[in-house]
Design a protein that fits this description.
Shape: globular
Structural class: alpha/beta
Strand order of the largest sheet: 15-14-18-12-11-10-1-13-17-16
Radius of gyration: 24 Å
Distance between the termini: 42 Å
Helix content: 25-40%
Largest sheet: 10 strands, mixed
Number of strands: 18
Length: about 475
Amino acid sequence: MNMKAMTCCILALAASALQANIATVDFACETGNIRPELHSSGWTPRMTAMSQGVNSDVAIIKSMGFKSARTHDWALVNTGQRVVDTHFIFPLMHLDANDPKNYVFAPTDYLLGFTRETGLDIFYRLGTSIEHTGPKVHFNAAIPEDFNKVADVFAGIVRHYNRGWGKDGKKWGIKYWEIWNEPDGWNNMWVMPGGDTEENDKIRRAKFCEFYALCIKRLKGEFGDEIKVGGPALCSMNGPYFKELFAACKKSGVAPDFISWHYYGDNPKEVMDAAEKARKICDEAGFTKCELIINEWHYMGCRWQDLRSANPAVSALCQEGPTGHNNIDSAAFTLATLSLFQTSKYDQAFYYGCSHGGHWGYMNSTRQFNKNYYACRLFGEIVNNHTKICKSEVLKRNYYALAVKGADKNKALLLVDFRNTDQLIKIKVDGVQKGAKVRAIALDHTRDNFPCDVTFEDGVLTLVKPDKFSAAFYVTFK
C-alpha cells in the first residue's frame, strides 16, 4: 500500500471511530408489552405437503413463530382442493342455505384442523380467492346476484365451525370473520357484468357497501359478540372507500368490529401513517372500538407489471441482487415494519405470505430459503421469547430499533439498517449489567442469521456491516 492510500485508510478509520451513536437504548425503562398478534401471515401447511419431516411445511411455518393464519388464497395454494372459498363450501347457490347437507365442509375441516394443530389461530376470509381471468370473464369474483343468500351461506359457515352445525361440525371459536377481499381491485375480486370500467366503478362500490353492511348485520344478528366481523381487505388504506362503508353501516344500524387493508411498497413510515389515518377516520365516524388490521403487506421495490413480466430480463431486475423482491432490502423492510408494528395503532398484522415458493413464498424454486424467511424466523424468536418492550430512540433516518426483555430478564436488541450505507453502527445501551455476555447474529447480503462480531465497551455497542447494503442485527445480553 502506498503512503497516500495508507493515509486515506487511517483517516477513514479515525472518522469511523468518532461516528455518533445512531440509537440509544435503555433496558431499565419498560414501555409496553410484546404483542404476538402483530406477527402473523397467510401461510399454513398445504394439504399436499403435510408430512412431519424437518423440511416439511409444518416445521418451516412453526419455525417462523406466527400467531395466526389468514385463509385468503388458500384455494390457489392447495392445488385441486375445494377449500375455504364460499363457492367451494356451498357450490350450488340455488339450494337451501339452512340445510347443512348442501355444504361441502370436509376438505376445509381437514385444512383448518391441521392449521390449528400447527399452533396457528384462524382468521377466516369469507368470499373468494383472487380470480385472474381477465377483464371480461369472471365466475367466482362476479358480484353475487342474491346478497341475502350469500349472507345466509356465510352464517352457515360460521355456524359449522363455531357451533358444531352439520356433519362433523366444530366448536373452534374462530373469532375473526372477514367479508370479502379487495373489492376495490380491478377485474379480479368484485366484478361488474362485462367487467369493471371507470364508468361503472361508482355503482360497484355502492353495491359492495350495501353487501358489506348486510353481511355484518346478518352475522352479528345470529352470533353477536361470539365473533368479530369486518373487512373488507381493501387494496390500500382508501379513506373515501372506508367512509362510504361506514355510511352504509350506519344506515343499517351496524358497526364493523374491524377494518382491514393491504400495503405493497417500500416505505415503513407509510405503513404506520396508514394506521394513524384509519384511526382518525374510525373515530370521526363514531366507531372508536373498531380494530385496525393490515392483513396483507410485503416489500414491493418495483412495479407490479415488472414483477410479473414474461420477459426474463425484466423479471430478473425485480428478483435479483440486494434490492430484489425477497432479498436483503426486502428482509430489512420486513423487520423494520414488524418492529414498528409493536408500538403502532394496529391491532393485527398479516405478512403476505400465502404460496410457499416464488414471489410470495419463503423459498425459491429449488427450495432454498430466501432472506424474508430468515427475517420472519428472527422476529418469531423475538416475540415468542420476550414479554416486554424497552425504551429505544433512533437518532438517524432509516434505522429501526426494538429493545425487548424476557421473563427471565434476559435482554435483546433488534437493530435494522434499511438502505443506509454506513458500515460501522454504534448504539448507546443502558440498563445492562456489567460483565453481561453479549452475542450477535447478522442478516445481511452475505449472512443468514449467522453469528457475527460485536463489541460492547463503556455502554456503547458496535456492529460492523460487511458491505453498504441493508442489514439487521439481533443482539442478546445475558
